[in-house]
Amino acid sequence: MKKNLRRLLPYLPLYAMMLPGMIYLFINNYIPMAGIVIAFKKYNVNSGIFGSPWVGLENFKFLFGTNDAFIILRNTLLYNVAFILINNLAGVVLAIILSDVLNKRLRSLYQSSLLLPFLISIVVVSYIVFALLSQENGMMNHTLLPLLGKEPVAWYSTPKYWPVILTLTHLWKGVGYGTLIYIAAISGIDGTLFEAAALDGASKWQQITRITLPFLIPAVITLLILNVGKIFFSDFGLFYQVPQDSGSLYPVTNTIDTYVYRALISAGGIGRSAAASVFQSVVGFLMVMTTNWIVRKTSAENAIF
Question: Does the pTM of the predicted model rise above 0.90?
Answer without folding.
Answer: no
